[in-house]
UniProtKB/TrEMBL annotation:
SUPFAM superfamilies: P-loop containing nucleoside triphosphate hydrolases (SSF52540). Pfam families: ABC_tran. PANTHER family: IRON ABC TRANSPORTER, ATP-BINDING PROTEIN (PTHR42734:SF21), METAL TRANSPORT SYSTEM ATP-BINDING PROTEIN TM_0124-RELATED (PTHR42734). The keyword ATP-binding applies. Residues 6-247 form the ABC transporter domain. GO terms for molecular function: ATP binding; ATP hydrolysis activity. It comes from the Bacteria. Keywords: ATP-binding, Nucleotide-binding, Transport. This is ABC transporter ATP-binding protein.
Length: 353
């Protein structure tokens, strides 16, 4: 097991405002963040992800218990001492003032400046190397407020790298990013954890991506936490128990969430004929069938061994056009795949019955 750099003891997170009883958010006991590991924190809105990150980073004090980094109790440290141990990247990075990307990354070096407050040549080299690490050195002279969300987020990660702390926290860093940028950020962070032996904890709502990339998932539920590898978590059905609702269900085999319809309509069985396997055309018929099946389920149809509808994807005659052959109520109907909405056609037959 990798070396633990952050640990907690009897940790209870929450808020203590004057004149009101304390508000407990989470009772997490003993937690560990280990060197070289990319950990992802997930949980429904309001369950306490930001509160936990703020507590682990020393921004707010625990209601009970303590957080230690490298055996130093966090709340006994001043801001500068903390910033030598922890860096934090937020989702909404509003940098005030007019700074270039390079100057922003350079800010990560301020915990190291001497008492004249002067940065050295080394600091400049470290900042440039951090920008290269995230593939953003070409942006170095651009003003931070002119960058896209994805570019800016890479610069903020570079700043955390330049700060060179053992622990890096990120609160929903991919919240405003498109799919490609989200994937890039996740992979980048994982490689930073590995290559630079950092302990990383990132909060996100990207469950499917976390399952593929994270070393460990920290799932908050109620006021508890469950921690485990993606394979251990998925195989225990925990994702389904925590995140499913009447309108969505997690498929542990495919690792994706599927939509469920509010009511059940008819039952169906779907298949393809032998010759479809060898079909060479613009679409992949087997993939087409898979997605048509998902669509039927999202509309309220359900798969059954004794179905009302038997649907077969096949090729029609010599022309070789793909068709749906539908058996329903003792009759067979044929629909041109490229010209019909299968669900609407089935619904018409079902309602006319
Ligand atoms: N300053 C505060 N004082 C009192 N309660 C707070 C404060 N900040 C947050 N809370 C409450 O603490 C609970 C956890 O909030 P938190 O922001 O940690 O959740 P979250 O999991 O990060 O949510 P989201 O996914 O919506 O960002 C919520 O009930 C919230 O209303």
């Amino acid at each position: 097991m990798n070396e633990s750099v952050l640990s907690t003891r009897n940790l209870i997170t929450g808020y203590q405002d004057k004149g009101v009883p304390p508000k407990v958010v989470g009772k997490y006991g003993e937690l560990h963040l280990r060197r070289g590991e990319f950990n992802v924190l997930i949980g429904v809105n309001g369950v306490g992800k930001s509160t936990l990150l703020k507590t682990l980073s020393g921004e707010i004090a625990p209601l009970e218990g303590e957080v230690s980094i490298n055996n130093k109790i966090l709340n006994a440290l001043n801001n500068t001492q903390r910033s030598l141990l922890i860096s934090f990247v937020f989702s909404n990075t509003n940098i005030v003032g007019k700074l270039t990307a390079f100057e922003t990354v350079l800010m990560g070096r301020y915990p190291y400046v001497n008492w004249w407050g002067k940065l050295k040549q080394d600091d400049h080299e470290i900042a440039l190397s951090a920008l290269k690490d995230v593939g953003a050195d070409h942006l170095k002279d651009r003003y931070i407020n002119t960058l896209s969300d994805g570019e800016r987020q890479k610069v903020m990660i570079a700043r955390a790298i330049a700060q060179n702390t053992d622990v890096i926290f990120l609160d929903e860093p991919s919240a405003h990013l498109d799919l490609i940028n989200r994937i890039e950020i996740f992979q980048l962070l994982k490689s930073i954890a590995r290559k630079k032996q950092k302990a990383i904890l990132l909060s996100t709502h990207e469950i499917e991506m976390s399952l593929q990339v994270a070393d460990n998932l920290w799932i908050l539920y109620g006021n508890e936490v469950k921690i485990g590898s993606p394979s251990a978590i998925v195989s225990s059905d925990f994702i389904n128990q925590t995140f499913s609702s009447p309108s969505i269900a997690f498929n542990a085999k495919s690792g994706v969430f599927n939509f469920c319809a509010p009511e059940s309509l008819f039952s169906f069985k779907i298949s393809f004929s032998e010759e479809v396997q060898h079909y060479k055309g613009a679409i992949d018929p087997i993939v087409y069938l898979e997605w048509e099946c998902k669509k039927l389920i999202s509309e309220g149809a359900y798969q059954d061994e004794n179905p009302q509808f038997s649907i077969c994807l096949t090729l029609l005659g010599d022309e070789g056009a793909l068709v749906w052959e539908v058996k329903f109520d003792g009759r067979t109907y044929t629909y041109d795949l490229s010209k019909c909405n299968l669900f609407s056609e089935l619904l018409k037959l079902y309602q006319a019955e």
